[in-house]
Amino acid sequence: MKRRKLKLEELNRITVEEFREAKKIPLVVVLDNVRSRHNIGSVFRTGDAFRVEEILLCGITGTPPDVEIHKTALGAENSVKWRYSEQTLLAVEALKAEGYTVFSIEQAESSVLLEEMQLEKGKKYAVIFGHEVYGVAQQVIDASDGCIEIPQYGTKHSLNVSVTAGIVIWDFFQRLRD
Question: Superfamily for 22-150+157-176?
Fold first, then answer.
């Protein structure tokens, strides 16, 4: 059986304006000192695909407009709401004050495996992804409500931050969407 690849106009994608008005999942993505602009752009694209509420760019994390971010975001940096915070810890404290349950995505003592994570519809969540080498800062982990870990079965101890974000955001989307 032949399968014809669909053309862009056949995908029935919504406009940026329609996206901004569309219902989002109650999830804020926090990037804690993510240095690669390509990773940042990839997170924007994933955030657009699964309608995250907002992306918080913290510390050394680059911000749009940026040519390198745009290369992987492909315009998603214009559809997904975002803001910048110089200090991740202050951003986390503000999210918690706004009623978000905040999780660092990190291998840590007492972390919960992603598939065992219990989420409640109607609650607001934030997930923090860290620096490509050092991960989420310890003080940010300490301020979080918990840590979520993606189980891994190979020889390496970590995944690329944008891959990790894709897995976690997709998982939250499946559980929290209406």
Answer: SPOUT methyltransferase, trefoil knot domain (3.40.1280.10)
